[in-house]
Design goal:
Elements lengths: L4 H8 L4 H12 L7 H10 L18 H5 L16 E3 L4 E8 L4 E5 L2 E4 H4 L4 H4 L6 E6 L7 E3 L4 E9 L8 H4 L5 H4 L2 E8 L2 E8 L6 E4 L3 E4 L7 E4 L6 E2 L4 E6 L3 E6 L4 E3 L8 E2 L4 E5 L3
Antiparallel strand pairs: 1-18, 2-5, 2-17, 3-4, 5-15, 6-14, 7-8, 7-12, 7-13, 8-9, 9-15, 10-11, 10-14, 16-18
Length: 286
Amino acid sequence: MPILDPILAQLLRVVPHHAVSRLTHRVARWESPRMQPLLRWFIRHYRLDMSEAAESEPVAYPSFNKLFTRALRADARPLQGDEFSIVSPADSRISALGTIETGQIFQAKGHTYTVTELLGGFADLARPFARGSFLTVYLSPRDYHRLHMPIAGRLTTMVHVPGRLFSVAPRIVAHTPRLYARNERVIAFFETAIGPVAMALIGAINVGSIETVWAGEITPPSRRHIRRIDYGNQEIRLDRGAEMGRFNLGSSVVLLLPEHPLHFDPALAPEKFIRFRQEVARIARV
């Protein structure tokens, strides 16, 4: 009930986020035939479309985590658009999108946070996005949990920012100021045809871990200090639509685009469901 959402958000502030998530990490990876009834219930309850999965039978998944991170058939999500297209990074619902106003990103219900704090306090990394664009998406328990490139790019930097693990469910986001800038997160920066692009992978309670295809599992373990890793001397390139990471359970992604002429699809709006590799914006030809 909406009237209870502020109370729920307050209660979640005192939950031991990391302890709960460490337990989830262990349970989700427990491999046993005894998990099958629970997995089948989960598939029915959340109405997972297993016909899209590379392995459609529940018995192919020995653990919850294997089911959450299931691969899809190669033809399940055709890549839309062309070299001037930006595509969705995930099967997800839109939380917010638009222009970054003087370094401020809209969260929900009047809440904003800054690009600099989202990116771990690194002003040099934040500078290209001060007047850019953003797209924030939420992955629910029923969604495919692998993440894909919105545009082709070369990896330049990765930042891991320790923090809280508030739920990123929309009802909690609406009542938790600066949530995305307070939660633990992994941010990947890419050099692209339109300049720097960043993907902030936001941790959340019950998210067992965040992984990338180049570094493997990054969280857990939880660390106390921000880490910034330079990949400028490596040639790690990913094509538009290629897998770049995954959530082991669901969370949110904040996509940051630089100040560059582009236009979001006018049909996009908060709560709209989008699929990965679906065109969400067009780059203006300059």
